[in-house]
Design goal:
4 helices, 17% strand, elongated, 40% helix, single chain, 2 domains
Length: 172
């Protein structure tokens, strides 16, 4: 039993669009090798999922979250000794995220929304990660309506300091 990657309709696509509106680039299918009439064939076991071209950290985190749930649901068809090999084959195409990648991506997104776009502190500034995802930075408490400007500035400075610390770690 193994995971097979299939590419559907790649020659027909003429333009590159956003990943949520374009067809997926690759589809993972779980198959097993069998012999039918003395000839080797691949029997379809389950469709595992699809992945788009060059996925970012957030996309990969959710992809692995859903893939783990899908493989768990296949417990009756998937032998326990085969699962690590299948996950390794999937990881060749879609690498699992690390805690450092999640922290850097999340803090960069917070900085982008708060400082670059000028939204300041807002509840919607935080990305939603899969439950139990390692590396998600702690969320500062939301601003009180009664918080002083100094308290708000201190909270923003703490996030900027976290971003600088992560960026410094990336360069080292």
């Amino acid at each position: 039993m193994f995971a097979r990657w299939q590419w559907w309709g790649q020659r027909r696509r003429k333009t590159v669009r956003y990943y949520w509106s374009q067809p997926a680039d690759a589809h993972a299918v779980l198959v097993e090798s069998v012999r039918i009439d003395g000839k080797p064939r691949q029997r379809h076991i389950a469709y595992l999922g699809s992945v788009h071209h060059d996925p970012d950290v957030h996309y990969r985190a959710w992809w692995w979250h859903h893939m783990t749930a899908r493989l768990d649901a296949l417990g009756n068809r998937l032998p326990p000794d085969e699962r690590p090999k299948i996950e390794a084959a999937l990881a060749d195409k879609v690498p699992p995220v690390t805690a450092a990648e999640v922290a850097a991506y999340d803090l960069h997104r917070q900085h982008d929304v708060r400082v670059v776009r000028g939204y300041g502190e807002c509840r919607g500034c935080y990305m939603r990660w899969p439950p139990g995802q390692a590396g998600v930075p702690p969320r500062p408490p939301p601003f009180d309506r009664d918080a002083t400007a100094e308290e708000q500035a201190a909270a923003i400075e703490s996030v900027v300091a976290l971003i600088a610390k992560v960026e410094k770690g990336k360069r080292a």
